[in-house]
């Protein structure tokens, strides 16, 4: 319940007045519905009684019928306004929630970001947020409006018919309805959990299958994965059927409750008439008001089967948005990049990966000057990428110090560091779009001439010219490019930023000797004054570098 309340509070805060006015109108609509039926019942019976008594001509039909019309029209208009306000406020609130979830993904620390699964993130942003529209529309607003209506109707009936009938009707609905709904929610909880799991499994399995379809096909596992997706879909459909059946059962029970309360109200009314407490028309008022109050339960029918799903979604979303933003490697508002001292200095640096006790890199020292190219070497798993990540400010150092132009990288301002240092990891992300879209990802303000020069430097000009130049289409994750071409697009994107320090993780992997040499020379000439530090396995990269530094691994 805490999770659901927290989500309702967020939705309420996003558009407080619209939500409060919508909730108020929900109450008005329910109250007018009960008053309309009660008044109509009283009117018909009172008119008939007046006719039987021979005083029909004296009976005032105008005022009650005007009131009936006012209630009928007011109720219709109120319903329209209530739907408009509550749905609009809820959808806008969900929009804020989605933005908060997205922000929490984007603000995740580097370590967490690498562990986020695309399918899970999509589930949080779509299915979970969709499930939460019911928190205000099917849970809190209808329950609050129903309770307010029962309270006001209780006071009105108490005044008109006495405490016994008023208590029978209002308490009957509040206690009886509450009991039916809470028992039904408890019984439906297991089915709701199973359905929710099936629907999350379905989405995740489907997304995994689409992403890994090539590998699955190669290993002959595509039918197996398709069967997993199909199985989750069948479980999901079965869960939906079960929940529909639960909704129907709740509907039958709530109908029986309404009939029982109305019959009891009529019986109590008849007894009161026999005892001479009030006229027969008043007995019908209680009976019809009891029938009219059935409307307070109508929006809650779907609540029991949906509650489990809403609870789970609310919990997951709360956990997601409650995750603190990135544990910063550098404090906010750090130092600017200075212009003194050697470009890059590492002094007895040790670096550990999160979750591991032993440092991956131990006591590494190096100095790299402006315009110098340094090759870092170590066996596979020896910590080359780890050093580059730390230099890019994405991993903290366990001991020692890393300095850029004389200032410790750990104290640098985030924006200043990003403007000065660019890292090209082993696997870079390419987006679906044109070659230009992918190059602009690194720097918005570049001109077509800049892009052509960078493409030339990375030996990509010929490839792009043959396929539409900057408008060449690239598929999702670099689809349509060879591995070496995708790598070169990532390199071109990085050098377009003209960083002071360029960090390259195995830059010529996947390139033949000739192209590799051409690319390394092209990059060096394009960034004459930049310091280039590269993680290298290949002899051609080591030979190209001005100096080589061997990493002593701690593992
Ligand atoms: N996210 C991570 N969490 C924990 N340990 C990691 C993580 N990534 C890599 N490691 C470990 O850190 C060590 C160094 O990895 P790193 O990627 O820096 O090596 P590398 O020299 O670049 O290797 P390669 O040449 O194969 O790319 C390895 O033992 C690796 O298993």
UniProtKB/TrEMBL annotation:
Compartment(s) of residence: Cell membrane
Record domain ABC transmembrane type-1: where: 22-309
Recorded GO MF terms: ATP binding
Transmembrane segments: 18-36, 42-62, 139-161, 167-189, 252-275, 281-300
Membrane topology, from the record: Multi-pass membrane protein
CDD domains assigned: ABCC_MRP_Like
Keywords: ATP-binding, Membrane, Nucleotide-binding, Transmembrane, Transmembrane helix
Name of the protein in question: ATP-binding cassette domain-containing protein
